[in-house]
Amino acid sequence: xxxxxxxxxxxxxxxxxxxxxxxxxxxxxxxxxxxxxxxxxxxxxxxxxxxxxxxxxxxxxxxxxxxxxxxxxxxxxxxxxxxxxxxxxxxxxxxxxxxxxxxxxxxxxxxxxxxxxxxxxxxxxxxxxxxxxxxxxxxxxxxxxxxxxxxxxxxxxxx
Length: 159
Hints:
By secondary structure, the protein is an alpha+beta fold. The protein has helices spanning 6-20, 51-68, 91-96; strands at 24-33, 36-44, 76-80, 101-110, 113-124, 127-132, 137-141, 145-150. The strands form 2 sheets. A 5-stranded antiparallel β-sheet has the order 7-6-5-4-8. A 3-stranded mixed β-sheet has the order 1-2-3. Helix 1 (6-20) packs across helix 2. The longest helix has 18 residues, at 51-68. 16% of the residues are buried. The model is unreliable at 155-159 (pLDDT under 50).
């Protein structure tokens, strides 16, 4: 039987509460920054996330997380929106956002270039194909990327 990691266990605990509030778990991360550990739960919903959504889920899950105690060390709980230019991390993200504009940063340069902008054309077997602005296509192994983010930032939304 496969061992469930911390992130998977936290998601199992939190998901029913998120569902009840009409929220989707976008991602869960557990990382050490400096001397502190951070459990970050990113949530989403149709129409966007408000601070009230973050507060409601925080109140709903704090006690169940304490009771289940899936994390032995002390940590900070943060619940937030994935924000604009959200990072695509899960298979369902790639499927859902096929056809969307994206930013990609590779771990190693390709012909001296690490940053690419284009349209997510396909995602299959951890391979990501992007059509660049010049209409050429590049295919990357997911593990070759530092990140892939949605290019959904529109300055006109803030003017």
